[in-house]
Amino acid sequence: MMAAEKSGGRIPTIKDVAKAAGVSQATVSYVLNNLNKVSPEVDAHVRRVAHELGYSRNRAARALKTGRNNVIGCIMPSLLSPVFPEIAQAVQQRAEEHGFATFVIDSGLQTAAREAEAIRVLADHGVDGAIAVLGSPRPASDRPTLPLVVVDQPMDGMDAVYADHREGGRLLAEYAVGLGHRRVGLLSGLQGLYSSRERREGFVEAARGRLDIAWNVEVPLVPSLPQEAVDALRRGDVSLVVCVNDLIAMLALSALRQARVRVPEDVSVMGFDDMQWSSWPLLNLTTVRQPLGRLGRDAVDLLVRRLDAPDAEITNIILPVSLIERGST
């Protein structure tokens, strides 16, 4: 029997599936949108009934009707760093709650050309909008053609959500003073990046007149330290090393242990992010926690709001940070 015959000569709808399965329309929507909100038994039952009725979501037809494909993009600068996959996972989970699928792209070296190419690829694949961690601000003449929410920094003319990086730097300096440190070294991120610059400036402002910054080495946010940074760590002329993020702190801990420098007995180490690995016993890292999951969730909420109201006022959300004390200090 044809699907149209089963539904009285018409194409079956979600309402038909719900009635035949003995569940609510919301339950059917949860199942067909793969939201994992029902038991495996209910999920299998609803899918079986939908198949028997010949129900099809017919995404192409729905896209023509609504002007949306219910797909968003997610551009991350690296999927090797533990931080960005945490944000991407939160984006995907929140997008599913809104009924959107997610298309993730690793933009690699964060060059403007590579980021522009990632945005173009997403647009060519028909995404409705995108969440993006971008390397640097763009001129007004280089705005993307699709709705974009920026994560990790403000950007003129676009919605954004980011942590209070400057306050995080200040918290690290205050904590260092409270522990009695006087001479410190900095492994700062490249200062062209908003978050790296804000973290360093927050620390330097709060440390002024109270801490002696013996050296400052700018390092790229990749899983290897330049030789200049390794040499600085091995000099043994500071009691504390403050790192731009937890990944760099993890590399600093490794370099110090290879040099047989004890942490925290000989030197303390602090990071920033509180990535999932930071609490592992081998790291046990004192750090500043930024709410990585909330960054992703709030970014999706901003994007959905922008899709529903294209002319709404630009929104910037600044999320609070907190100091997490562990055994590396």
UniProtKB/TrEMBL annotation:
Residue stretches making up the HTH lacI-type domain: 12-66
InterPro entries: HTH_LacI, LacI/GalR-like_sensor, Lambda_DNA-bd_dom_sf, Peripla_BP_I
DNA-binding among keywords: yes
Domain of life: Bacteria
Keywords, comma-separated and alphabetical: DNA-binding, Transcription, Transcription regulation
PROSITE patterns linked: HTH_LACI_1 (PS00356), HTH_LACI_2 (PS50932)
A GO molecular function held by the record: transcription cis-regulatory region binding
Ribosomal protein among keywords: no
Name of the protein in question: HTH lacI-type domain-containing protein
